[in-house]
Amino acid sequence: MEKRILKHRLLSCISRNFLLVAGTTVSTVFAVWLVSVFIYEPEFTATSQVFIEPPTADTGWGDPVLASDYQTLEAYQVLAKSPAVLSRVLERIESSYSISELHNRIAIDRPENSQVLNIVVTASDKNKAAGMANAIAFSLQEEVKSSLKVDNVSVILKAGTSYSSLEESKSLGILLPLAAVAGLVAGLVLSFLFELIALRGRFAQYGKKKNTHLQTVFK
Length: 219
Description:
Elements: H1 2-16, H2 18-39, E1 44-52, H3 67-80, H4 83-92, H5 99-104, E2 106-109, E3 116-123, H6 126-148, E4 153-157, E5 166-168, H7 172-218
Antiparallel strand pairs: 1-3, 1-4, 1-5, 2-3
Helix pairs in contact: 2-7, 4-6
């Protein structure tokens, strides 16, 4: 019975303040949309992949699963973000980024027990992100040939193709529903708060009337 009464009061509170709840929800969604369209710059990620050919017995490197080979792969991960490679990248593409800015937009990872390096680049434009990811892959290949005198890097996946990862890191389709939920919660909280304030005001008025009535009786 108490649950039914509480539910009825909550629904009554929401119905009396429906315009407030709806207005807060719509306003929040509209504000997020405005910020997303006119202020916020979306970030896109693009991924290219390179394959590091495992060493053979002829090269003296031994079994490709040895720890020394994993250290070599880690060295290639570091080389991919080195100034030597990034300077080649900036020569390939038209970009206003400095080497340090480009370095901060790159993430290199390697799947476990794999000879593949994933080159993930973040930029404000999807074509720019794909171009930088591909430039890094080919620049790494050139740097290895030039500096290490080894031809064991192959580009196996170019960013921007139908098989590569190219997506917006923060989608508007996610932000707007979250804004709607936040606006709805804020509207409900405000409506309950106004109801409490109104209820307190009614009790105050009732207390004043009661005191006035008692003073009249005792006179």
